[in-house]
Amino acid sequence: MQVQAKSQPLEQYKMYIDGQWVESASGDHFESDNPFTGQPWALIPKGGKDDVDRAVQAAHRAFVSGDWPKLTASQRGALLRKLGDLLTTHAKHLAEIEVRDNGKLIAEMSAQLNYVPQWYYYYGGLADKIESSVIPIDKPDNFNYTRYEPLGVVGAIVPWNSPLLLTAWKLAPALAAGNTVVLKPSEYTSASLLEFMRVFEQAGFPPGVVNVVTGFGPDAGAPLVEHPLVAKIAFTGSEKTGRMIYETAARGLKRVGLELGGKSPNIVFDDADMDNAVKGAISGIFAATGQTCIAGSRLLVQDNIHDEFVDKLVVFAKTATMGDPMSLDTQVGPVTNKPQYRKVLDYIDIAKGEGVQTRLGGAKAERPECGDGWFVEPTVFTGVSNAMRIAQEEVFGPVLSVIPFTDEDEAVAIANDVIYGLAAGVWTQNIRRAITMADRLQAGTVWVNTYRAVSYMSPFGGYKRSGLGRENGQDMIKDYMQVKSVWISTATEVPNPFVMR
Ligand code: NAI
Ligand code: MG
């Protein structure tokens, strides 16, 4: 099922605007590749400014008129829960599409798609629990209360590494709050979100509440950020694009939520449970082929256990099976797209040029089971200093840099000495150390004796250049709302009109 003969016709997709499946205004398409075969398998509409305008206008109409603004919060919640149920029913199909378009492992996608509905259940449940206040106002003869209201049209721009999950993080709170949405998937992985919309259609949301415009960043992403009718941009992706979006959004005084990159430290102390820490290091960098914003790409190991730990890690990593991501046995899949594949290989060369030692991998994978796919060998570099580019820049691939440290102070200094601050891992059995390290690390998430855990209930986001704002958890729904203060005079007579009340 994975191998697609070149002669096989490409699956042709349409975009979803105002409740209709449509071609782009230009009628142009672009190919989407299967990273396991290295061959195109689908044609995606190449959206541009006109399509974005059409989608934003539809979302704006749906926000101000029709059924959506008339729904009670409980009714919005019910729609979101229905969507969650439908996603559960269609999880297998969506997982298979993601495997084909993205190269993600079926093992990971099956688990992920069983979890994604929780975002729709959680925020669906939260929709009617946003209570405002009656203020015990200090002015006599006045009744003052607040109202939480949606913002309007939200532009959601998502990357290729986990399209369905990262969309849920934005869509669920945005809709629960009563906004409408225009979604721009990555040009590398549009198919799963278009398939998702087929499921979404069945839930019964009014037309225009969610629209999808496919296309490239500058053609379809930029006009969405610039559009005057868009109130907020929710973005996950690279730091470079995030900065551009922030600047553009500032000109329109739009709100932004930015989830950007990371160079997360995974710190192993000599008192750690060694076997667990090895597994933690592996899951930090080789899971999802290292293509996660939370990748633990810098492994900080206490110097007295450094050699022994690296030996164990290399032995374990060597056993990783590569190959067809549709096979349940595969542990490391291909890199999702060709530019990213080249980027990872370039960084391997950069690291070698900086004088690191290659303990494992360090090249593209030439294993027969990898075929013509974009595979990179799981790579472990030692002799890395934190000042090197390989330790400072986000690679977004299966490339681990091991950096030794002597004590807690040095570990903290190295860990925090990057522009990013998305996540960090600490491996120790010492409770004082666990707590004080969690205090001292500049990261939006700290894991102790685990790695790569996320939940719809717990805030996620970056310190420093890893982003702005948070996703997940109860408070975050308010990032998709604004508060209004309502004053009602109970006086029988308007007092002196020439002074402030
Ligand atoms: P990107 O940040 O450029 O793309 C993310 C999304 O933004 C895509 O939907 C893209 O079409 C859109 N976009 C691009 N330019 C835009 C613009 N001017 N205005 C509005 N939207 C725009 O990431 P890309 O190029 O796919 O990957 C480059 C690098 O970014 C990777 O090598 C990786 O290091 C990093 N990255 C980080 C991610 C994370 O989760 N932190 C996710 C994806 C990539
Ligand atoms: Mg693809």
Architecture overview:
With 501 residues, the protein is an alpha/beta fold. The chain folds into two domains: 13-34 and 48-260 and 466-484, Aldehyde Dehydrogenase, Chain A, domain 1 (3-Layer(aba) Sandwich), CATH 3.40.605.10; 265-448, Aldehyde Dehydrogenase, Chain A, domain 2 (3-Layer(aba) Sandwich), CATH 3.40.309.10. The chain is built from 15 helices and 23 strands. The chain has helices at 49-64, 73-89, 91-102, 106-115, 117-126, 163-176, 191-201, 217-226, 239-251, 274-285, 306-318, 338-353, 389-392, 408-416, 431-440; strands at residues 11-12, 15-17, 20-22, 29-34, 39-45, 134-135, 142-150, 153-157, 180-184, 210-212, 230-236, 255-259, 265-268, 298-302, 357-360, 379-382, 399-405, 420-421, 423-427, 445-448, 463-464, 467-468, 481-489. β16, α13 and β17 form a beta-alpha-beta unit. The protein binds 1,4-dihydronicotinamide adenine dinucleotide (NAI) and magnesium ion (MG). Magnesium ion binds next to β4 and α3.
What's the short version?
The protein contains 15 helices and 23 strands. It has helices spanning 49-64, 73-89, 91-102, 106-115, 117-126, 163-176, 191-201, 217-226, 239-251, 274-285, 306-318, 338-353, 389-392, 408-416, 431-440; strands at residues 11-12, 15-17, 20-22, 29-34, 39-45, 134-135, 142-150, 153-157, 180-184, 210-212, 230-236, 255-259, 265-268, 298-302, 357-360, 379-382, 399-405, 420-421, 423-427, 445-448, 463-464, 467-468, 481-489.
